[in-house]
Design a protein that fits this description.
- Chain A: It comes from Clostridium frigoris.
- Chain A: This is Thioredoxin.
- The complex is a heterodimer of chains A (about 100) and B (about 290).
- Chain A has a single domain, classed as Glutaredoxin (3-Layer(aba) Sandwich).
- Helices cover about 35% and strands about 30% of the residues of chain A.
- Chain A has four helices and five strands, in the order βαβαβαββα.
- Chain A has helices at about 10-15, 30-45, 60-65, 95-105; strands at about 1-5, 20-25, 50-55, 75-80, 85-90.
- Chain A has a five-stranded mixed sheet.
- In chain A, helix 2 links the parallel strand 2 and strand 3 (about 50-55).
- The two termini of chain A are about 20 Å apart.
- By secondary structure, chain B is of the alpha/beta class.
- In chain B, about 25% of the residues lie in helices and about 25% in strands.
- Chain B has seven helices and 17 strands.
- In chain B, the strands form four sheets. In chain B, strands 1, 2, 3, 4, 5, 6 and 17 form a seven-stranded mixed sheet that branches.
- In chain B, strand 5 and strand 6 form a beta hairpin.
- In chain B, helix 1 (about 15-25) packs parallel to helix 7.
- The longest helix of chain B has 25 residues, at about 265-289.
- The chains are: A alpha/beta (about 100), B alpha/beta (about 290).
- At the A-B interface, helix 2 and helix 4 of A face strand 4 and strand 7 of B.
């Protein structure tokens, strides 16, 4: 399951989460984001037990997008509490994303 | 839904063509992207004496025998430029602007012709540097953007960006007419490097500099790491093993894009190996289903 997160529930869903959180920054007008989203979904199905998955629409969450200096999408970040452990800019194959996430478990 | 090809080959030089004929012989459903000219490098060669079996010929003669060979085998070239290849898991999505193709395996045979990145370009990728202006333009609403344009298409993208950004600069890297919106400022100086701290702050030119929030590099030919996000590069070339396999499952590479020596026979040989590896990968996919 992928949680929709925005400026309002960011702290509750990500900063205060017990698990690490994989966040997909996206927007509806971004082509590569559309390609990445089924890949993230597959990962969420496989790894959802130990890792939380979230997506943030940068159009609707300008505060978070500017706090984390999102200047290109898709961007995937791995959060542990409120600190960013990994940042991956652009589409990435599933195997690579999985490796990066596992490194942070 | 689009038909899913067994193998998609990107590039019509000796590596791509040799891959195509071998995959075809193995009865795979293939698609090959490139140009009718096959390879501009071959046509430019004055004399070729190191291609076994074809002695003392010109590049054009060599090109013509390649063309006859693939035509005789019923291989047609799709004259479209692939912008991105996304590894989706058990297949690849090949994007041509708004259109896309699907293939179970891919062979990269793109040669080595791409322009070197600017200093700082790779360092600031995603931190102010981008390759798709239309993708990221809304993130620069009310900000300053510099676009380094290598082709006509970059003018269209610049106009789109200028409708959202506060200030847009266009640095043309080719000669021609630029049909730009009035509020775009054309800068006729050569870009040298991109600098910043956490994020881009300015672009340094051979004369002066521009303070900016973002820089888009819009080129004709893209480097392998832009073409296939996630592919492993080593010393400026695609990293492959003896089976011509890259770090991405189902993705193979052959020819100049994998490294030196840049020679026809080496490219063709690698194309052959890549095709056979791709064929056995595709067969294995079927067995698992």
């Amino acid at each position: 399951m992928i949680k929709e997160v925005n400026d309002i529930n960011f702290n509750e869903e990500i900063a205060n989460s017990d698990n690490i959180v994989v966040v997909d920054f996206w927007a509806p007008w971004c082509g590569p984001c559309k390609m990445l989203s089924p890949v993230i979904e597959e990962l969420a199905n496989e790894m959802g037990k130990n890792v939380k998955f979230a997506k943030i629409n940068v159009d609707e969450s300008p505060i978070i997008a500017s706090t984390y200096k999102i200047s290109s999408i898709p961007t995937v970040m791995v959060f542990n509490k409120d600190s960013v452990k990994e940042t991956l800019v652009g589409f990435r194959p599933k195997a690579e994303l999985k490796k990066v996430i596992e490194k942070n478990l | 839904m689009n038909a899913r090809y067994d193998i998609a080959i990107i590039g019509t030089g000796p590596a791509g063509l040799e891959a195509a004929i071998n995959a075809k012989i193995r009865n795979k459903n293939i698609i090959i992207f490139g140009s009718e000219d096959l390879s501009s490098k071959i046509s430019k060669a004055a004399k070729v004496n190191n291609f076994l079996g074809l002695y003392n010929i010109t590049g054009i003669q060599l090109k013509n025998s390649f063309a006859e060979h693939i035509a005789a085998m019923g291989i047609g070239i799709v004259n479209e430029k692939i912008n991105n290849v996304y590894a989706m898991g058990d297949y690849f999505a090949l994007m041509v602007n708004e259109k896309s193709y699907e293939a179970k395996a891919i062979i990269l045979a793109t040669g080595i012709e791409y322009t070197k990145p600017l200093i700082g370009e790779e360092e600031f990728l995603g931190k102010g540097v981008g390759y798709c202006a239309t993708c990221d333009a809304p993130l620069y609403k009310g900000k300053t953007v510099v676009i380094v344009g290598y082709n006509k298409k970059s003018v269209e993208e610049t106009n789109y960006v200028s409708e959202l950004s506060e200030k847009t600069y266009f640095i043309p890297m080719y000669k021609g007419e630029y049909n730009l919106n009035q509020n775009v400022e054309i800068v006729n100086h050569k870009p040298l490097k991109i600098v910043g701290n956490d994020v881009v702050t300015k672009i340094i030119l051979d004369q002066g500099e521009i303070v900016t929030d973002g820089v888009f590099m819009l080129r004709d030919s893209v480097s392998p790491s832009q073409l296939v996000p996630g592919i492993e590069i080593e010393n400026g070339h695609i990293k492959v093993n003896r089976d011509m396999k890259t770090n991405i499952e189902g993705c193979y590479a052959a020819g100049d894009c994998t490294g030196t020596p840049y020679q026809y026979m080496k490219s063709a040989g690698e194309g052959l190996v890549a095709a056979l590896s791709a064929v056995s990968y595709v067969d294995k996919l079927h067995d698992n289903k």
